[in-house]
Write a structure and sequence with these properties.
The strands form 8 sheets. Strands 12, 13, 15, 16, 17 and 18 form a 6-stranded antiparallel beta sheet that branches. The chain is an all-beta fold and 415 residues long. The protein is 2% helix and 47% strand. The termini are far apart. It folds into 4 domains: 96 residues, Immunoglobulin-like, CATH 2.60.40; 89 residues, Immunoglobulin-like, CATH 2.60.40.10; 90 residues, Immunoglobulins (Immunoglobulin-like, Sandwich), CATH 2.60.40.10; 89 residues, Immunoglobulin-like. The protein is rod-shaped, with a radius of gyration of 47 Å. Strand 15 and strand 16 form a beta hairpin.
């Protein structure tokens, strides 16, 4: 009888739907023990179930669920970042159901940066690296990346950049021609991640140095200055030529020395500071971003001497209806180099344009010349220019004006 009375009293109590009270989030450092206590109310006593995400929580040596009359406690030992998730507690009785979520944030060092790990803009001593943010930030903002480099031939890792705030950087101070690998780690306030490691690369430009300049030659000689000229290389190596470097050497020296302090942009250069009477030879290097070419073939040796004097004023010795015959005197000083011939130039008056009558000095080896194909009755002046093996003179004083007469073969004086 007493048992039946108790049962009746129980059945007569008011039913209460489940109610769960617990925080909506919790932060915990990795390696610690997580304890989530949820207060559960309701009559009859609710049945409780924990979920991680949408999966049932499975008990193990590391995870346990303790149930009491008015609580349910979830315990996880030695938490890791994998334990970070939304956990849901569901309580159910005959009067209803209640669910509450709690976000568990395990605070740890971040996961490694994510691939692809790109290497671009490779130069002889630098390159650009780029990567992606870690999938796991460790529950704390990424504050920094640490970039290391490894010279493959040596095998040791050294810090290249200790503080990178973006997911890319420029690495310098590489040794040209050496092979490198790189690795990057993410850092937050709890520590530094495992590294993301790049493939191998060689520190070199994606193009070559130019080929050597061609046809290095002497174009003018003075007692303390020699003009050197050359032709552009056949190949720029895949990168525009930025200039030229000139070297000189004395005949009795073994050493080549620079003749210019900064790169020369043109293909001719006056090499100054020479000593009169010494013999010099010159060679040229072409430059681009990859470096200097092989040297050109050296010029012939030439003596630094005073320039060749101009020839004497041409004199007219004969005139026809289309020709004029001229003579002049040799230069008083040939500059110390063999005279190889002359250029003769004509100017039709009253103009001032001088036109060469011959294309090479070898065509006029002596101090005489007959200009042909002249315009009948026109008036001309002529001048001569001496050419040695290494130099060319200033033009001579112009001849007196001469009129082309129709009388063929008649001797006449200049007018």
């Amino acid at each position: 009888m007493e048992g039946a009375k108790e049962s009746k009293l129980v059945n007569g109590k008011k039913k209460i739907p489940p109610k769960i009270l617990m925080p909506d989030h919790v932060h915990i450092k990795a390696g610690k023990k997580l304890r989530i206590e949820a207060h559960v109310y309701g009559k009859p006593q609710p049945v409780c179930k924990w979920l991680k995400g949408d999966q049932d929580v499975l008990t193990s040596s590391r995870l346990a669920v303790h149930k009491a009359e008015k609580s349910s406690v979830l315990i996880i030992k030695d938490v890791t970042r994998k334990d970070s998730d939304f956990y849901t507690l569901t309580a159910e009785n005959s009067s209803g159901t209640d669910s509450q979520k709690i976000r568990v944030i395990v605070m740890d060092k971040p996961g490694p940066p994510q691939p692809p790990f790109d290497i671009s803009e490779i130069d002889a001593d630098a390159c650009t690296l780029a990567w992606h943010i870690p999938l796991e930030d460790g529950g704390s903002n990424i504050t920094n990346y640490v970039v290391e480099k490894c010279d493959v031939s040596r095998g040791d890792w050294v810090t290249a950049l200790a503080s990178v705030t973006k997911t890319s950087c420029r690495i310098g101070k590489l040794i040209p021609g050496e092979e490198y690998m790189f690795r990057v780690r993410a850092e937050n306030r709890f520590g530094i991640s495992e590294p993301l490691i790049s493939g191998k690369m060689i520190a070199q430009f994606p193009f070559d140095v130019p080929s050597e300049p061609k046809n290095a030659r002497i174009t003018k000689v003075n007692k303390d200055c020699i003009f050197v000229a050359w032709d552009k290389p056949d190949s720029d190596g895949g990168s525009p030529i930025t200039g030229y470097l000139i070297e000189r050497k004395e005949r009795n020296s073994l050493l080549w020395v620079k003749a210019n302090d900064t790169a020369v942009r043109s293909t001719e250069y006056p090499c100054v500071g020479l000593i009169e009477g010494l013999e010099y030879t010159f060679r040229i290097y072409a430059l681009n971003r990859a470096g200097a070419s092989k040297p050109s073939k050296p010029t012939e040796f030439v003596t630094a001497r005073a320039p060749v004097d101009p020839p004497g004023k041409p004199e007219v010795i004969d005139v026809t209806k289309s020709t004029v015959s001229l003579i002049w005197t040799r230069p008083k000083h040939d500059g110390g180099s063999k005279l190889i011939g002359y250029f003769v130039e004509a100017c039709k008056l009253p103009g001032d344009k001088w036109v060469r009558c011959n294309t090479t000095p070898h065509q006029i080896p002596l101090e005489e010349y007959t200009a042909t194909d002249l315009e009948e009755n026109a008036q001309y002046q002529f001048r001569a220019i001496a050419k040695t093996a290494v130099n060319i003179s200033r033009p001579s004083e112009p001849s007196d004006p001469v009129t082309i007469h129709p009388e063929n073969g008649k001797k006449c004086k200049s007018i």
